[in-house]
Design goal:
By secondary structure, the chain is an alpha+beta fold. The protein is built from 9 helices and 14 strands. A 5-stranded antiparallel sheet has the order 4-5-10-6-7. It has a 4-stranded antiparallel sheet with strand order 11-12-13-14, with helices on both faces. A 3-stranded parallel sheet has the order 1-3-2, with no helix packed on it. Its EC number is 1.17.5.2.
Length: 283
C-alpha cells in the first residue's frame, strides 16, 4: 500500500489496487484513491479495492476559453496554494487564505487533493469553503460515462453527505471568471489557536453589477451562500442568515457548540459586510 507509507493506518480489508486508467466494472467495496489522506486515516472496513487516480495525468489547473478556472480533483493543496500565490487576479488571496485554513503538515499538503476535500464533505473542509465562496461547480462523472454539473452548495447536502451516486467520480471544480474578478474578504474562527475551523465566512463584491455575496461554512453542516443585488444592511444580512439556516444546521461537535458557531458566523458576516462596504464606498 505505497500511498500510505507515512500513515499509521493499514487498510487490511483491501485486496487489490487498480489503476484508474484501466476501465473495469465498478463493484461493491470499490473506492476512489486520490491522495488518501482521509482514506488511510481511519479504518475503512467496507473497502475491498482501491481505484488509484494518481496516474490519470489531469492538469492540476487549467484555464477554459471563457476565462473560468478548472481545478482537477487530483490537484493537491500544495499545487493549489502555489498557483494562488502567483495568480494576478483580484480574488487570488482567497485561495491562499483557504489553503492556510487547512491546518495540516506539509506531508498532508503534498498529498491531500481538492477532490478528496470536497468528497469528504466535512463542514470545516476549506476547499469546500473556497469553491462555494467563489460560486464554484463540480463536474461529476458516472460509471456509464455520463456527466453532470452541480453547484458546490448543492453538492454538499450536510455533514459528510454529498450528492454522489455509487461509483461517481468528482472530476473537477470550476471557478467562473467573474468570481475571480471579485474583491473578497475572509474570516475564520476556531476555539484553539491552531484548531479546526469553527466558523469560516467569505464575502465577495462583484465589480460588474455591484452585488454582494456571503458564504457561511464550517459553522454549518453545509455551505450556505447568500446573494444580494443591493448591499444589505446589518439587519438584512443577519435576517437572511437566521431565516435560512435552520437550528439543526448549525454544526455541533467538539470544535464548537451550535450557539457559539451561530454567534461567530453572524459576527464575522457583519465584519465582512463592513469591510467590503467601506472598500466599495472608497472606490
Amino acid at each position: 500500500m505505497q500511498r500510505g507509507w507515512w500513515r499509521e493506518m493499514d487498510l487490511n480489508t483491501v485486496l487489490d489496487v487498480r489503476d484508474a486508467r484501466r476501465r473495469e466494472p465498478w463493484r461493491p467495496g470499490d473506492a476512489w484513491l486520490g491522495g488518501g489522506t482521509y482514506l488511510f486515516s481511519e479504518p475503512q472496513p467496507h473497502v475491498r479495492r482501491l481505484v488509484d487516480l494518481s496516474r490519470m495525468g489531469w492538469p492540476p489547473l487549467s484555464w477554459q476559453p471563457d476565462g473560468s478556472l478548472d481545478i482537477a480533483a487530483t490537484c493537491t493543496i500544495t499545487e493549489l496554494s502555489r498557483f494562488g500565490r502567483s495568480l494576478p487576479m483580484t480574488a487570488a488571496p482567497l485561495i491562499e487564505q483557504c489553503c492556510r485554513a487547512f491546518l495540516a503538515s506539509f506531508k498532508i499538503w503534498n498529498m491531500a487533493t481538492v477532490g478528496g476535500n470536497l468528497c469528504n464533505g466535512l463542514p470545516a473542509g476549506p476547499i469546500i469553503s473556497l469553491s462555494a465562496g467563489l460560486d464554484g461547480t463540480v463536474l461529476l462523472q458516472g460509471q456509464d460515462g455520463a456527466t453532470r454539473r452541480l453547484a458546490v452548495t448543492d453538492f454538499i447536502r450536510g455533514a459528510g453527505v454529498k450528492d454522489l451516486r455509487d461509483g461517481d467520480l468528482l472530476r473537477s471544480v470550476r471557478i467562473p471568471a467573474r468570481a475571480l474578478a471579485c474583491r473578497t474578504a475572509f474570516r475564520q474562527a476556531s476555539l484553539y489557536g491552531l484548531g479546526r475551523s469553527g466558523a469560516l465566512v467569505i464575502g465577495t463584491a462583484d465589480p460588474q453589477d455591484g452585488s454582494f455575496a456571503l458564504t457561511v461554512s464550517a459553522a454549518t453542516t453545509r455551505p450556505f451562500r447568500f446573494w444580494f443585488a443591493l448591499w444589505p444592511t446589518a439587519a438584512e444580512l443577519r435576517a437572511a442568515i437566521d431565516d435560512t439556516v435552520r437550528p439543526a444546521e448549525w454544526f455541533d461537535d467538539i470544535h464548537g457548540l451550535p450557539e457559539w458557531r451561530r454567534h461567530m458566523a453572524l459576527r464575522l458576516a457583519e465584519e465582512i459586510r463592513r469591510e467590503l462596504t467601506l472598500e466599495e464606498g472608497s472606490r
